[in-house]
Amino acid sequence: MKLDSKTSVITGGARGIGLAIAERYLDEGANVVVADIDQAAIDEAAASLTARAEGEAGRVMGVRLDVCDRASVDAMVASVGERFGGIDILVNNAAIFDMAPVLEVTEESFDRQFAVNTKGLFFTLQAVAKAMVARGRGGKIINMASQAGRRGEPLVSVYCASKAAVISLTQSCGLSLIAHGINVNGIAPGVVDTPMWDEVDALFARYENRPLGEKKRLVGEAVPYGRMGRPEDHAGAAVFLASDDSDYVVAQTLNVDGGNWMS
Ligand code: NAD
C-alpha cells in the first residue's frame, strides 16, 4: 500500500471526485479526513468510508469545514493534529461553479467563486503547509485545477479564471515549499460526471436553450477517450502525487482528462 499510515485531508471530500480520492486513499492505507461544508454529505460519506475500512473505523474522520473561513480551516488543522498527530497529505479539492454570459456576471458570483476556488484553496494550503513545516516531516499537497483553467470559455469566464489562478498558485507554492520537503502539484480534470456537472448541465440548458442532459451527452461524446470522466478516474493520479513515487515532481499540474481538448 502506497500511503500506509499517512494522514490525508480531502476538502470537498464528501462527494464527487473528492470522495473517490478518499476511498482510494483508504484502500492505500491512509487515514482519511473528509472536510466539507455539507454536514449531511459528510455524515453519509463517513459512514460509507467507515464500512469500507472494515473494522478500522478509527481511520476515518469527518470534519465540517468552510475553506473561506480562516478560523474553520485552523480548527480543522488543529482537530486533525489532535486525532492523528498531523497532516501528511492535503487534497485541496473543494470548489464551486457558476455560469453566466460575460455581460451578465454579477460581482457576487465573481467574489463567491474566487472566495472558494482560489482564496479558500490558497489559505487552506497555507495553514496546512505551516503545520507541515512545524512538524518537520514534509508533505504532499494536491490542488484540484481544471481544463477550464487552461483556456477561457465564454459562459464560464470567472470559473475559468479562478482555476487558472489555481494552476499559477500550484507553480508558485510548489517552487517555494519544496525547500521544506512539501511537494505541491495539481490535477486538471476535463469533464467529469459528478453532482457538479449536473448543475453545469442545468445551467447550459438555461443559457443555450437545450433539453436537460443534452450538453452532458455532447461533451462526453467529444472526449477522445470516448466518455466523460468518472470520479474514480482521478484517484490513481491523486495516489501518485500523494506517494513517495512523486517526490521529484514539483509544481506540476497533471491533465487527467481522457485527452479532452475542448470542453
Ligand atoms: P462537487 O460539486 O460534486 O463536489 C464539491 C464538494 O465541495 C462538495 O461536497 C461541496 O459541499 C464542497 N464544498 C463546496 N464549497 C465548499 C467550501 N466552501 N468549503 C468546503 N467544502 C466545500 O464537485 P466535483 O465535480 O467532484 O469537483 C471536485 C473538484 O474538481 C473541484 O475543484 C472542481 O472544480 C474540479 N473539477 C471538476 C470537473 C467536473 O467536470 N466535475 C472538471 C474539472 C475540475
TrEMBL record:
Record keyword rRNA-binding present: no
EC main group: oxidoreductase
UniProt keywords, alphabetically: Oxidoreductase
The keyword Oxidoreductase belongs to this UniProt entry's keyword annotation: yes
Domain Ketoreductase, residue spans: 6-190
Pfam families reported in the protein's UniProt record: adh_short_C2 (PF13561)
GO molecular function: L-iditol 2-dehydrogenase (NAD+) activity
Lineage: Bacteria, Pseudomonadati, Pseudomonadota, Gammaproteobacteria, Oceanospirillales
Entry EC no(s): 1.1.1.14
Organism domain of life: Bacteria
Family: Belongs to the short-chain dehydrogenases/reductases (SDR) family.
Official protein name in the record: L-iditol 2-dehydrogenase
